Amino acid sequence: MTSVRRSLAGALVALAGVAVLTAAMLPLRPHLSVATAGLVLVVPVVLGVAIGGLVAGGVAVVLGFVAYDLFFIPPYNSLSVDNGQNWTALVVYVAVMLVVARVVATLQQARAQARRREEETRRLYLLSDLLIGDQLLPDLLERIASTIEQAFRPRWVAVLLPEGDALVVAAVAGTPLSSEERRRLSPPPGQLQSLRTGRSDDQIIRIALSARDRPVGLLALSGASPDAHEWELLRTYTNQAALALERSQLRRQAMRTELLEEVDRWRDAMMGAVSHDLRTPLASIKAAVSTLRGDGSGLDQADRAELLEMIERQADNLDRLVANLLDMTRIQSGALELRREVVPVADVVEDAVHAMANEVAPVHVAAELPGDLPPVDVDQVLMVQVLANLLENAARYSPEGQPIEVGASTRNGLVEVVVRDHGPGVLPADRERVFHMFNQVSGSGRAGLGLTIAKAFVEAHGQTIHVGDTPGGGAEFTFTMPRAVLPPDAVA
């Protein structure tokens, strides 16, 4: 409500109050003293001041004076006064009413100012809270703009941030900006833009957002006319906002630096693991090729076949390593998609054993699968990869002559597959880290991408994988697959 409306409302309330109280006291006039009537007519003055301020209080004093003189000081219904005592009563009434009006108006102003200070303190606390909050930059910019718009009620508030050689509008509160206003706020790159605080020719207030003498942005307001106190308050707001922006920007830089460090660490680990895994098959291939290209007259047909078989096996090993790297890239980028189908568990095991047999030295796999195992609803390619990776891991650490055991059973509505080896096993403290990418755990020496990819593919199906102990020594990897839901006629 504007001050004019408030004054008018207060004057009308005072008029109504004088009329009602006068009408109520007229029947009792013979029994009322002159002083009593004057005291009663204080009430409209207080009401007028409380609602409309000092101007409305002045109107109430005039109305009360006229009503008091006309209806309660002889001669009645006339503004004339017949004796000095009544003149004294009128003068005292006016004096008291003016004092009351002034006191009530002062109290109202003090109360309004206290509310205003409380609101300013609350908003300053809100902005200060931004300094210790952990918000994303877009959310922070929106809160800064909306807080200043609520505090100063301009037509609009805009927060601009430097982007390259230009200032761009990053957040707006209030009336949406027109294209012309946006053009004035964000001139073309290369055109000079002032960051000085003040009001420009287009009646837009611009305030530089600076933290530790370093500009971090610009605040623009349109349709605001702050007084001296509001200017100081606005500067305080912008200082808080600049600190919050600087903190958010520093946090983003720190996160970017941390990300780059993590990428470097990941790259170094990948290069170390890949170079280690590449060196062995490449050395074997090079040695076999050198032997075949050299004086091979001493090699019989069986020796040549063995060398060619080793070259083929090690080439498949390299191909598997590249495939693992590509799979890891798909997992990291979120591009992994499941193509589910109903598959017998025996087919998954058979395909995995076949894939593993082509890529590592011959190892005996003892598979024991119950004949009543239900089919599973999985992406067959991915699950074959899971089991092949586990078999390859087991083959790498199994003692010579020891078989790798594969078993399956149903438990809690799921199909559980177990791969056991009789190698060094995995220490309890390392059983979670063994699935981490490129993590060489203590004790077992198990590392690389195979177990990481197996865990990712299993969890993509919403299932679990873990490692435990094999009875008699070794590692036991267990993962689950969801059972396929078949129609009744298919089950029969």
Chain-wise SSE layout:
Blueprint: H1 3-25, H2 34-40, H3 42-52, H4 54-72, H5 84-132, H6 137-152, E1 156-163, E2 166-174, H7 179-185, E3 198-199, E4 204-211, E5 214-222, H8 228-293, H9 301-333, E6 341-343, H10 345-357, E7 365-368, E8 376-378, H11 380-397, E9 404-411, E10 414-420, H12 450-460, E11 465-469, E12 475-482, H13 488-491
Parallel strand pairs: 7-9
Antiparallel strand pairs: 1-2, 1-5, 3-4, 4-5, 6-8, 9-10, 10-12, 11-12
Description:
- There is one protein chain.
- With 492 residues, the protein is an alpha+beta fold.
- The protein has four domains: 3-116, no CATH class; 135-253, GAF domain (Beta-Lactamase, 2-Layer Sandwich), CATH 3.30.450.40; 282-333; 341-491, Heat Shock Protein 90 (2-Layer Sandwich), CATH 3.30.565.10.
- 56% of the residues lie in helices and 15% in strands.
- The protein starts with a helix and ends with a helix.
- Mean pLDDT is 78; it is low at 441-447.
Compact description:
It contains 13 helices and 12 strands. By secondary structure, the protein is an alpha+beta fold.
Q: For the report, how would you describe the main beta sheet?
A: 5 strands, antiparallel
Q: What proportion of the residues is helical, as a percent range? A: 55-70%
The global form is elongated
Mean pLDDT reading: 78
The assigned CATH architecture of the largest domain is 2-Layer Sandwich
Give the strand line-up of the largest sheet: 2-1-5-4-3
Query: What's the CATH superfamily of the largest domain, by name?
Result: Histidine kinase-like ATPase, C-terminal domain
CATH class of the largest domain: Alpha Beta
- Tally of domains: 4
Annotation, overall tally of beta strands: 12
CATH topology of the largest domain: Heat Shock Protein 90
Structural class: alpha+beta
Q: What string gives the helices and strands in order?
A: HHHHHHEEHEEEHHEHEEHEEHEEH
Poorly predicted ranges: 441-447
- Rg over CA atoms, rounded to whole Å, is 44 Å
Terminal Cα separation, in Å?
Answer: 80 Å
The total count of helices amounts to 13
β-strand amount = 15-25%
